[in-house]
Amino acid sequence: VDHHQVDVAKGLPVALAILDPQRADCPSGLRELCGCGLAFFLAMAVRSKGRERGWFQPGQEPTLKKHLDLVVLATAADLVPLVSNNRILVRHGLEVLKKTQKPGLRALLEVAGVEVKLVSPGHLGFVLGPRINASGRIQNASIALRLLTTVNAIEAVELARELERLNEERKGLQNQIWDEIKEQIQVDIDGGKFQYGIVVGSDRWHEGVVGIVASRVTEQFRRPAIVLSFRDGHGKGSARSYGGKNILEAIRHCADVLEGFGGHAHAAGVGIKPENLDRFAERFNEAIHALPKETVEEPPLVIDGECALKELQSQTLLEIESLGPFGPGNPEPVFHVQAQVRSFQILKERHLKLRLGSVDADDASLMEAIWFHAAEDPEKVAQLTQRPVLEWAGVPELNRFRGRVTPTLRIRDQKKTGSPTKDLPV
């Protein structure tokens, strides 16, 4: 059972049955499902066949709906398009997750500071997913597996705390790599390198976090990227697409300098020997450039509408939230807001927590805002000390943490519009 594209050169593996909607001969139309979603559909099909063959005694037929809490978590964490069947699974899975009786999920939410009944789509990808993935990235996936399958509440709490620790270690490792490579990549781009695609690697980097760093690279430099970790004469890396480029197709054109590869159009993994790094970087750059022209560059940030701070009340944000879940295929709405910086603080030397105020002297509206990774740019921090009036592009959302529900603006971008305003109430 798999949801990745079939390698044209290798073909299908030898097996009694292969369930993969990416097969050219598969008529299911389930190409957007993640691996866990496919497993769930397989379980439904097996149950249906069992029903036909009389496998179950009256009242003993397995209830699959109670396991949608696992399906929703996997679907959100795997970043598959939230359309069609995925949207249905996530929509109903969230309701199951809010009432989950699985000790592992309840313990994971508690350790993360999230009340079970207040779980939102944002918690799936930003809170729960990273903690579960940290198990396989830093140590091994068995810790997460034990957490999700245990029926012992005490063991669940112990495992959840271990995942919390591993997740903090994961964040430290990825920040270390990011700090090391971001300035060098910019220097290389300014020098004419990596004009279409980026490939970097080192034996100092942990292979479990290079995929996350690759995503940061694509966001910062707006082009596909591959980040590699070398150990014992072999390199493993993760590729992330950008701007609609089919990254697997580009990698396929470089197959002769690789030890192996696999994945799909948006993300892939590669294996390579260290001595082939420079050659692969050149070939990958050329391959990205040669991709069909219809895979155009990522458009500028799209603003869905304008609003004032006073309009971003809890009820309004609940109505926006009801249009979700948001993700690939159903992007979260971004609004243009003009507001003054009243105060700010730096979180973990990387993020900015802001207090924004209305620019209308008759409006005393205030709102919290979070701007991830903005504190890494000294110019942005220096600008905020002037308490400027800025135009913000942000995602309004309800921040649920430790029982508190707070309207928050998650900043995506900003631009300065004028000098500091001194006559506004503080």
Describe it for me?
The protein has helices at 35-53, 68-77, 84-97, 103-111, 121-138, 142-149, 153-190, 210-221, 247-252, 277-290, 314-321, 378-384, and strands at 198-202, 225-231, 234-240, 260-263, 267-272, 305-306, 335-347, 351-358, 366-371, 389-401, 404-416. It has a five-stranded mixed sheet with strand order 1-2-3-5-4, sandwiched between helices. Strands 7-8-9-11-10 form a five-stranded mixed β-barrel. By secondary structure, the protein is α+β, with helices and mostly antiparallel strands. The protein contains twelve helices and eleven strands.
In short:
This protein is an alpha+beta fold. The chain is built from twelve helices and eleven strands. Mean pLDDT is 89; it is low at 418-426.
- Major sheet characteristics: 5 strands, mixed
User: How many DSSP-defined strands?
Assistant: 11
Task: Give the termini separation.
Answer: 58 Å
* Total helical segments: 12
Question: N-to-C SSE series?
Answer: HHHHHHHEHEEHEEHEHEEEHEE
